[in-house]
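Today's session is about reading a structure prediction critically. Students often jump straight to the picture, but the first step is always the sequence itself: look for stretches that repeat, for charged clusters, for runs of hydrophobic residues. Only then move on to the predicted structure, which in these notes is written as discrete structure tokens rather than atom positions. Here is the chain we will use throughout the hour.
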Amino acid sequence: MTRSLGTGSAEPSVDITVLLPVRNAAATLPAALTSLSAQTLDAFTVLILDDGSTDGSLDVARDWARRDPRFVSVESEPRGIVRTLQEGLSRVRTEFVARMDADDVCLPRRLAVQSAFLRERGDLVGCGAQVVPVPGQPVKDRALEYLAWLNGLTDWESVERDLFVECPLAHPTFFFRAEALRRAGGYRDRSWPEDYDLLLRLWRLGGRYCSVPEPLLEWGEGDHRLSKTHPAYSTAAFARCRLHHLHRAVLPDFAGVAIWGSGPTGKLLGRLCPEVGVRLANFVDVDPRKIGQEIHGVPVLEAREAASRKGLFHLGAVARKQGRESLRRMVRELGLEEGVNFRSVA
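Below is the predicted structure for this chain, in token form.
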């Protein structure tokens, strides 16, 4: 059973609801809520969705709901982030819905900028925003590389090109038309990343999105985050999600897939193909020591022979930006076309 505290009384001009799930985040929640209360656009509602916290987070949420009618405390027993977010989405009555996490900080213009951006861009169902690390938190080189990639996806063409590389929008920056999320089925639990799954379903329905070209969120990357600890965000879970949506949207028109790259990323994809009903035809590699071998029961071919095979969809499983771009140049020279019979998936 869920309960709400706070009126959440919304004037007619309120057209943004922020979904903020919380589980034992008493140490960081006040800063997150303070950043929302300081927004330059003040007509919004925040649903603080407490998911069975035991550390005082609920007291923080209740206190904010008593002091500021824009904040509503929604309480429930522990049930996980997906069900919590779906419960929140079911309560949304506004045109737009935004996301926020309890250990992130919004910059003051976030809601105003995203709202104006989406109103001007009728071709988009939603947007994200560029992010910066929370000041003072150590950031590893790989994380900085990921942020640079993420912050570069500021137009649909870039997003669509890299859609299967990684989740192209930071979940806490989501700002979407609520009706688009409902049409896509909202959040669902498939044991893989719920945000990525939602974006891929929107894509399959023809939805477009990109990030606002402005940093609007300080993104916490502590080791306690679900994305670091829960199996639904593992490398294998991401790979299953990609293959599932490719299989549903693209692969029925092809006889099977060829995986370019026989390293750990490619081998993982190949192992998962049968799980989602995808026929693995062959691997492709440029290392002469690997060509002619078999992996998962299929041959490793050299690039020119692999590109000449008819009826296959080609998956680029070479990780990191430099390798990915090098592979893209190679397959283009061999006559494959990105988005038609080739996709980078790492």
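Discussion point for the tutorial: Residues 235-249 form the longest helix (15 residues).
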